[in-house]
Amino acid sequence: MNGPRILIFGSSGQVGTELQRSFSGLGETVICARTEVDLTAEEQIRATIQRVAPDVILNAAAYTAVDKAESERDLAMAINGRAPGVMAEEALRRNALLVHYSTDYVFDGSKSGAWAEEDPTNPLNLYGASKLAGEEAIRGAGGRTLIFRTSWVYGPHGHNFLFTMLRLGRQRDELKIVDDQRGAPTTSIAIADATRAVVDAVLSGKAGEQEWAGVYHMTCSGAVSWCGFAQAIFARAQALLDGRAPRVLPIASSEYPTPARRPHNSVLSCEKLRTRFGVQLPAWEQALDTVIGRFAARPASA
Question: Which of 55, 61, 198, 268 has its CA 20 to 30 A from that of 188?
């Protein structure tokens, strides 16, 4: 098959599954699920990249258990902090393109407006600190790298807020959801499609030389609280819930304590992505409609 050889780490996860769909047909895709390579073992990462000899590495693998990370620091740091740096070093040796995903949780949420890429980072939790360490490791390696910070990721695959709400919506008549944290719910579908558009621009030369390398924010547009997001899900998912619609009550973060602190403002400005690549993700409401539509189109037995 003509075209680049693409290696996807984390291919069985939310974003990795959609990357397989979005990059289908571009070239030869080699998938690498979490069971196939130990991301805490540097030599396994290097051996995999050397064996596959990719032109593009898409790293959708991550330790994502935000609360559990507080007690599993070493594991989170190994997967989120050190593994991306190893990938970047191997990508540099091959002059391959590395795409890596980071998070809004590198910020502390204290800013009133949307966060820009150059704003100072100050993660409130270990998960955010581990993702920031991964960014720094990639930047330290240099080369042809793209770091996409995204937020509140969900979609039609895996474990996420949408699936949790649908499950609880079938079980309960009333839900209390945090209303003082704001962000942009972003679908794995939108992330994968935006990534494909950027990679196409880079590989075709339309993005120019390596001045495109760096950190970009990649989220759906708009913002909402977790409570508002839950209400939007239930308003759109009546058919999936057999007409049930639990009452959603807003609460403060202080009423729902968690091991890891969360930023109150996770809204990211994506202007740099739009200006540099002409890529803009859909509004979060439109993206939610797309995911709900995916569920509705599934066979009843699925």
Answer: 55
